[in-house]
């Protein structure tokens, strides 16, 4: 069961990035459709499984997507997705996969390790490409990552194609590894190097959306996993390391080093302090402080980082609108 995840990062078409969209879309349709068909023979037997609010919302979303496709004057494109492979067929497989997998309380350790190893291989490929090596011959001869937007349109990295899509998958992988550590601890700390490598790559790729999503996830995880002193220390170690890796270009390498040392201190404190002590009030106060700090950073930011720059430009207009009322 682990052979496919480990081999998947190296599935690439012969024509390189020029043909990667069609290849990946076909691969996704074949493999996911096969998974859904096989899983239909082992549906969850839990009573009321499909009546949960989240699954009902997913089914409602699927229904309206079907209705939209049926009413579209470009019905074939609406169902098959056209050149971008984003039609109803693809959305249906997304939703069905979610419905079938959402019943799992937590991924098995073997599956998590295979997934992390696959991400590690994908990350190593991206590192080679960022270093100027045309691994797997995905770029045309004489071109590479540094030529993106200069000698060819768009930006491509890894075997997923578009750099933004690659960044989204790396961010999702880092998030899953970090949540596994928060939830289970212990041997799941072996996933930390894979999450750290993904976060480092996101910063090197300069894909701002996935980076911002990881930071928001870290804030949302605080009230969930910071209820006890041990959980708060574990969250602190992971959040500090994540921020150091993602934000070293924004905050500077000195503060990033300080955050790395803070991560190490929190890791040691988790093992020495009474882990079951109630810290819900402290975690809420810390969450409020971090939200205010983030708002102050956005309000005063004047750098180049696109999401912060755009949010900073929006805040004065929002404030003027409120005061004007």
Name a few traits of the molecule.
two-stranded antiparallel sheet; mainly alpha; 325 residues; 2 strands; globular; disordered C terminus
Strand content: under 5%
Helical amount: 55-70%
Distance between the termini: 61 Å
Secondary-structure element order, as H and E? HHHHHHEEHHHHHHH
Largest beta sheet, briefly? Answer: 2 strands, antiparallel
Overall number of strands: 2
**Rounded mean pLDDT score:** 80
Poorly predicted runs are 321-325
Number of helices: 13
Whole-number radius of gyration? 22 Å
Give an account of the 3D structure.
There is one protein chain. Helix content is 69%, strand content 1%. It has 325 residues and is mainly α. It has a two-stranded antiparallel sheet. Strand 1 (156-157) and strand 2 (161-162) form a beta hairpin. It is globular and about 60 Å long.
Give the secondary structure arrangement, pairings included.
Layout lengths: L2 H5 L12 H20 L13 H19 L3 H6 L7 H14 L7 H22 L25 E2 L3 E2 H22 L7 H14 L2 H18 L3 H23 L1 H20 L7 H21 L5 H19 L1
Antiparallel strand pairs: 1-2
Helix pairs in contact: 2-5, 3-5, 6-8, 7-8, 7-9, 8-10, 9-10, 10-11, 12-13
Quick structural summary:
With 325 residues, the chain is mainly alpha-helical.
């Amino acid at each position: 069961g682990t052979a496919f995840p480990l081999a998947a990062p190296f599935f690439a078409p012969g024509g390189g990035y020029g043909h990667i969209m069609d290849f990946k879309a076909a691969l996704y349709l074949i493999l996911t459709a096969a998974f859904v068909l096989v899983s239909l023979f082992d549906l969850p037997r839990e009573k009321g499984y499909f009546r949960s609010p989240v699954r009902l919302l997913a089914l409602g979303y699927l229904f309206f997507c079907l209705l939209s496709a049926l009413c579209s004057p470009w019905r074939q494109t609406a169902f098959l997705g056209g050149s971008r492979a984003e039609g109803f067929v693809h959305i249906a497989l997304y939703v069905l996969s979610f419905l079938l997998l959402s019943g799992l309380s937590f991924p098995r350790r073997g599956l998590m390790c295979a997934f992390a190893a696959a991400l590690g291989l994908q990350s190593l490929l991206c590192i080679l490409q960022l270093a100027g090596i045309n691994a797997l011959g995905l770029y045309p001869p004489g071109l590479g990552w540094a030529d993106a937007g200069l000698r060819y349109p768009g930006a491509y990295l890894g075997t997923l194609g578009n750099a933004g899509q690659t960044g989204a998958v790396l961010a999702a992988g880092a998030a899953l590894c970090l949540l596994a550590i928060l939830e289970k601890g212990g041997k799941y700390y072996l996933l930390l190097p894979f999450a750290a490598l993904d976060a480092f790559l996101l910063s090197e790729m300069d894909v701002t959306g996935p980076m911002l999503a990881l930071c928001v996830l870290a804030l949302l995880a605080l009230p969930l996993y910071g209820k006890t002193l041990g959980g708060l220390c574990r969250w602190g170690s992971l959040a500090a390391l994540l921020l150091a890796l993602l934000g070293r270009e924004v905050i500077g390498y000195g503060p990033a080093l300080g955050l790395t040392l803070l991560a190490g201190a929190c890791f040691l404190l988790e093992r020495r302090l009474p882990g079951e002590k109630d810290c819900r009030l402290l975690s809420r106060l810390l969450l409020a402080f971090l939200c205010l700090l983030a708002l102050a950073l956005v309000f005063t930011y004047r750098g180049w980082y696109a999401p912060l720059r755009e949010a900073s430009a929006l805040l004065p207009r929002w404030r003027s609108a409120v005061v004007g009322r």
